[in-house]
Amino acid sequence: EAQVTQNPRYLITVTGKKLTVTCSQNMNHEYMSWYRQDPGLGLRQIYYSMNVEVTDKGDVPEGYKVSRKEKRNFPLILESPSPNQTSLYFCASSLGGYDYNEQFFGPGTRLTVL
Amino acid sequence: AQSVAQPEDQVNVAEGNPLTVKCTYSVSGNPYLFWYVQYPNRGLQFLLKYITGDNLVKGSYGFEAEFNKSQTSFHLKKPSALVSDSALYFCAVREGTTDSWGKLQFGAGTQVVVTP
To answer: Which of the four pLDDT bands, split at 50, 70 and 90, describes residue A75?
Structure first.
């Protein structure tokens, strides 16, 4: 089944404890992206990747890191999480970056930072 | 820089009545517009997109959207709403310029409530 998977789905952590949220897609998509969803703000793009080893900042990259070492995976790293990073996170992928294909979204990761 | 506005936080409609969810956008170049839907405790699902061509775009689940360049709008419509259409709807825009190919801007979302 074609899908985007995220792990973990739920995470409660404490301020300053490094964490990684994994994202994987099995559709051979070139483009991948991370978003956070907050009430009243919609989805805001954190980072995106046009292809392997190519990443760029979205609208809210502060406090996050990403890497794209292989096509299928695009992990989101929070080196020192803070309470304002408590949010619902979505990973998405699409066929190509330089086209207008729709994005496929993962199920989301609900992160709480205490 | 691109931006998207969804002026209504919530739209209430009775089952069987027409449904409209509003979206306006701002881009420097040509807009590439999308609608996504989010059902409770689920990820987003693609509904439809406008790239070029016919201003009326048809999508999944009986939804359609009308692109209006002069009003910079891309309203989502359904002729007859179902209770199962109750969900959170997002409008999104990409700006087709070299330095923004990868960026996708979402609106704040509109909650649709369809009552029996």
So the answer is: very high
CA-nearest residue to B37 within chain A is: A105
Closest CA to B31 of B60, B66, B74, B63: B74
Residues of chain B below pLDDT 50: none
Residue B99 confidence (pLDDT): 66
Nearest to B103 among A45, A92, A106 (CB): A45
Distance CA B78, CA B20 (A): 7
Residues of B in Cβ contact (< 8 Å) with A4: 43
pLDDT surpassing 70 at residue A22: yes
> Does B22 contact A at CB distance below 8 Å?
no
